[in-house]
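Components:
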Amino acid sequence: MNLLATVLPWAAGAFTIALLLAGWRLLRGPTLADRILALDTLYVNSVALLVLVGMYFGTAIYFEVALIIAMIGFVSTVALAKYLLRGDIIE
Amino acid sequence: MRDLPFMLDLVLAVLVVVGAAFALVGAYGLAKFRDFLKRLHGPTKASTVGVGAVLLASIGYFAAAGKASLHELLITLFVFMTAPVAAHLLVKAAMHVDPRLRPPGGPPQESPAGSDAKLPD
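Structure:
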């Protein structure tokens, strides 16, 4: 019996639904801050989804992808929030 | 998937399920709540725990497979350090765009750099 192998596809499904909900908020969100928050949630959840895929296939290649997505996602969130705050990114 | 000892299998499966449930609830809160500050509350806590639990499970799985690496630990540290910073910046931006979100009697409009950590009592 392999519990982890049974559970992984369901967890991936849950993360996919989370991605869809965040995407709905991204399209819908009344304010710009809502859309930035939705993008932030999207990248955090996609990092977790990539780690799950890496576990499922037993390869470590996806960690590099997840790490790069985490870094670029953080920088883009900060840049977008800075743009809202100041009207300019690099002052 | 390789075969794992039962206890380790159980712990990893529980971690993955907890992480997925937290992320799902957080995203549901993001889609469901009515104003921005409530919406911010869901994903910032929940998805951090969700990603943390999944990354812990991944650390355990690859350590048991004999392929332990520092990548997961790096991602965990990075996400745990950057998520609060991003949330803080988002709140500041939202308050700047919509002053009604400010707490009553809060800090002054434009505080000089370095002194904006003062919170109302």
